[in-house]
């Protein structure tokens, strides 16, 4: 299924089902919000969040956007549905959005809007082998609980707070773990839940091993992060 979406480049990755608060202050994105809020009530107020791969946005002479060589975006993003809007007297907006659907950008569209617009393919949410997904989810959930324990330096009561549905868990782990933007982007772009969970199993094993080794170091962690003396 194809769609045309306004695009919002960000230095982060949005996942389906996850909340993303946004403070909108640039004129072009104020226009984007106003355009969405002016849609008929029965239409979904969605825009595409795409992570920035390189470069930066360049304002054009009329508040537009030059995408060209100055801005490189990842192909796979996630739509953000506006759930709450607070407009400030000076025209700024505070939004509460929720990730809804993954998409792959086919091409950017030239038009009169001051923000980026793209033709996209909306992606499904295939699970893969369902029995394998369930087994992987059990392993990833256990690793994620160990990871949270090490991050918080104490045993948290998180067992009943984490989802056990493979797809939901895979996105929660991807969004919550302290991963690089590149790792998160690869997880978002995974073909199915099984592949995402497999990748997370590897990433969490790595992170748990590193955190366990840090805890075994006798020096306080604060000393490990202090800059070295120039003398």
TrEMBL record:
SMART domains, A to Z: LON
InterPro entries: Lon_prtase_N (IPR003111), Lon_prtase_N_sf (IPR046336), PUA-like_sf (IPR015947)
Superkingdom of this protein's organism: Bacteria
Signal peptide: none
Every Lon N-terminal domain range: 2-208
Gene3D superfamilies in alphabetical order: 1.20.58.1480, LON domain-like
UniProt xrefs under SUPFAM superfamilies: PUA domain-like
Name this polypeptide is given: Lon N-terminal domain-containing protein
Organism: Virgisporangium ochraceum
